[in-house]
UniProtKB/TrEMBL annotation:
GO MF: CP2 mannose-ethanolamine phosphotransferase activity
Organism of derivation: Octodon degus
Protein's membrane topology: Multi-pass membrane protein
Protein name as catalogued: GPI ethanolamine phosphate transferase 2 isoform X5
TM segment ranges: 6-28, 432-451, 471-491, 503-530, 691-711, 723-743
Length: 771
């Protein structure tokens, strides 16, 4: 069977897409989701368990707090509050945590440590999966069950000030809001003043139940100058003052209403040592979570080592504190200290509600949920809880009852922890089997493409698909059988929950057929290649074969550079290997040219440059012969008269070439410092793109476009020349119209841009783009 080049390429691309899709499906496993539709809110709460009868406490318990204020400080790292910085710059918060009625925790955020996913995690208590990424592409509003939605359904009035992400995630949920944009990274003052300016008025009013403030300034400072900047101290002090203001106002309100309020201080993610965030380092993941309420016990204690909890635990805790149902997809467990001063019956009721929600989520997502230790523990605790309620209703007031209650609570807490761990493991689990299948498919298609490159270059781009020869058919059936056996073994093993196993057998079989067929095609192509090359070896000693030193260096360097891209610091400093490689290559080239010229191998020089290493297969070897023979022939015609100035010029040009390239590389490095370490250093790019050097940039751009035209127009028809010129003029006009460049007739307003504040927004937006 023969395939044309188009059909061959198209099928290769289709196979690649299939492989990548299977891989991604394994890499981003489905998140844990409740089966019940999110639209339905009024689901009856689980009744209190009662041994031998059904309890009449079926309603949700009443809210524990009347007003709640959530202060979210973007990029608040745990040591900004609990460390030496906190003691120095946040004296009031430190006092509250040490001696006030509060509970402090270190809440661990899951990567990606970026604001929007973290807000979602805080309010839904769930971790996003692959399906959500696809599902949320076109709708910014949060569709999932969350605390804000539940609070709105319960008729709570909520007010929001701060990062406008919240307004996009929860449209029409807030009775009053003012969103600030996080676009101007260089602004760390206005962005917070826009939040604080509402505070005074709102705190005086009583017509709200929940106030959410999201301060962005600290994050912006981190992005500008890192976590050790002196600006951090000022910002923390400002935040401390705000917390004091809110706490005092809440206390005043409490005296009027006589019911406790809740103040929550949290961060969405931390800040790395360079001031950025997004990854999974300890600095980026650990955030403080401080809950303050007069309902809590005042207990002097060590605040330097708070308990570590999960960020997702806040959703369940808030829901219980506000008397709301826990969000359906929440995998968090209740922060028990919040309820530990409530009567025992209420405590157990809260724990039971959380347990029911978690075990329901486990049942809907894990097939073998009954064997889960957390589930078993929960069932046992629920039975004990029933006994406890029975004794309690029988007015048993002995110490034994209290002991039993404590035991039940402890058992519930253990069960909650195990359940939420099992659920988060379920989310974080890579589906290795699907990933492996996807990788194999992709690699096979890639190998096939590589192997066919010589044929394509040879303009005989037809691929022989060798499914008919008996040897390959045998190989095909063998591989198919082995793969099917592996599939059966993997999918019938106890704890497999692979996506690939959940596919119908026919579809999985199709993929197996594809994998085996590709393997056979590759094997046959390789076999033919080996046969062809041995034939060639026998026929003649080939003049072009063998590796030159430069070729070897190029090949090894390329392989090394590709390998370095897989480093953990993905695309941070990898350009350094490229710089190193280019410099080394230039030096090697220079050495080779010198050797060729001064040691008297003049005629061989062009030959060196035309020797193509890495000839794959016989067909390309043939081609190479043309490639290296052609210049030789040309040299016979022109170069046999090498005496005189022409030859001298050429010689020096060739000798200077590598050094010229080296100089260009140096210029290139200076043009733009890429990477994380050097990003802040001033470079030519910054100089050119600053508003005061627009004229220079415009001249340079015009010159570069002219050079491009001069180089590209050779050998073009007049029509293409005009088209090329028009296109290049268009490039310049576009850049000028969006304000990057100046037209020749435009004045260079360098004085004005510095004097009037009206031109500062473009500058700021540029800085934001660089940041
Ligand atoms: Zn953030």
């Amino acid at each position: 069977m023969r395939l044309g080049p188009g059909a061959f390429a198209a099928s290769c691309v289709a196979i690649e897409v299939l492989g990548v899709a299977i891989f991604l499906r394994g890499f981003f496993p489905a998140s844990v989701r409740s089966a019940s539709p999110t639209g339905r809110l009024a689901e009856p709460a689980a009744p209190e368990p009662l041994a031998g009868a059904s309890s009449n406490w079926t309603k949700l318990p009443l809210p524990l707090f009347s007003k709640t204020v959530i202060v979210l400080i973007d990029a608040l790292r745990d040591d900004f509050v609990f460390g030496s910085k906190g003691a120095r710059y946040m004296p009031f918060t430190t006092y509250l945590m040490g001696k006030g009625p509060s509970h402090s925790f270190v809440a661990e955020a899951k990567p990606p440590t970026v604001t929007m996913p973290r807000i979602k995690a805080l309010m839904t208590g769930s971790l996003p999966g692959f399906v959500d990424i696809i599902r949320n592409l076109n709708s910014p509003a949060l569709q999932e069950d969350n605390v804000i939605r539940q609070a709105k359904a319960a008729g709570k009035r909520m007010i929001f000030y701060g990062d406008e992400t919240w307004v996009k995630l929860f449209p029409k949920h807030f009775v009053e809001y003012d969103g600030t944009t996080s676009f101007f990274v260089s602004d760390y003052t206005e962005v917070d003043s826009n939040v604080t300016r509402h505070l005074e008025k709102v705190l005086k009013r009583g017509d709200w139940d929940m106030l959410i403030l999201h301060y962005l300034g600290l994050d912006h400072i981190g992005h500008i100058s890192g976590p050790d900047s002196p600006l951090i101290g000022y910002k923390l002090r400002e935040m401390d003052g705000i917390l004091m203001k809110i706490y005092t106002a809440l206390l005043t309100k409490e005296r009027e209403t006589l019911s406790p309020n809740l103040l929550v201080l949290c961060g969405d993610h931390g800040m790395s040592e360079t001031g950025s965030h997004g990854a999974a380092s300890a600095e980026e993941v650990r955030t403080p979570l401080v809950l303050v309420s007069s309902a809590f016990e005042r207990k002097p204690g060590d605040i330097r080592h708070p308990t570590q909890v999960q960020q997702t635990d806040l959703a369940a805790t808030l829901a219980i504190g506000l008397g709301l149902p826990i969000p359906k997809n929440s995998i968090g467990s209740l922060l028990f200290p919040v309820v530990e001063r409530r009567p025992m019956r209420e405590q157990l009721r809260f724990l039971h509600l959380n347990g029911v929600q978690l075990s329901r989520l486990l049942q809907e997502n894990v097939p073998s949920y009954e064997k889960d230790p957390g589930f078993e523990q929960f069932v046992m605790a629920e039975r004990l809880h029933g006994n406890w309620v029975k004794l309690h209703l029988e007015e048993d007031r002995s110490g034994a009852l209290l002991n039993l209650g404590t035991k039940v609570a402890r058992q519930y807490l253990g069960a909650l922890k195990t359940l939420s761990l099992a659920l988060s493991m379920h989310v974080a689990q890579y589906d290795i089997y699907s990933m492996a299948v996807g990788t194999i498919v992709v690699l096979e298609a890639l190998t096939l493409l590589l192997l066919s490159t010589p044929q394509v270059l040879h303009r005989r781009a037809e691929l022989e698909v060798p499914l008919s020869p008996p040897v390959f058919s045998l190989l095909f059936y063998l591989v198919f059988l082995v793969l099917s056996a592996i599939h059966v073994v993997v999918c019938t093993s106890a704890e497999s929950s692979c996506y690939f196993c959940s596919l119908p057998w026919l579809a999985a079989g199709g993929v197996m057929v594809l994998v085996s067929a590709l393997l056979c095609v590759i094997a046959s192509a390789l076999a033919r290649m080996v046969m062809d090359s041995t034939l060639l070896w026998k026929s003649a000693a080939h003049p072009c074969s063998g590796w030159s030193e430069v070729g070897l260096l190029l090949l090894l360097g390329t392989v090394g550079h590709v390998l370095s891209l897989g480093a953990s610091s993905f695309v941070e400093e990898e350009h350094q290997t490229w710089y190193f490689l280019v410099s080394t290559l230039c030096l090697a080239l220079s050495q080779e040219t010198c050797r060729s010229y001064f040691l008297g191998h003049n005629n061989e020089l062009p030959h060196c440059f035309h020797t193509e290493p890495g000839t794959v297969g016989a067909t390309s070897v043939h081609q190479d012969c043309f490639a290296c023979e052609a210049p030789k022939a040309g040299q016979m015609d022109k170069a046999p008269c090498p005496s005189g100035t022409h030859r001298g010029h050429a010689r020096w040009a060739v000798l200077a070439g590598p050094w010229l390239v080296l100089a260009c590389c140096r210029l290139l490095r200076f043009l733009n410092h890429t990477g994380v370490q050097g990003a802040h250093r001033p470079d030519l790019g910054h100089w050119l793109t600053s508003t005061s050097h627009k004229m220079e940039l415009s001249c340079l751009a015009a010159l570069s476009l002219l050079v491009i035209f001069m180089l590209a127009q050779r050998g073009c028809s007049p029509v293409s020349k005009v088209a090329l010129a028009l296109g290049l003029v268009g490039v310049f006009c576009y850049r000028a119209s969006i304000g990057n460049l100046l037209f020749p007739w435009q004045p260079a307003n360098r004085g004005i841009s510095k004097a009037t504040p009206t031109t500062s927004p473009p500058l700021m937006s540029q800085q934001a783009l660089w940041a």
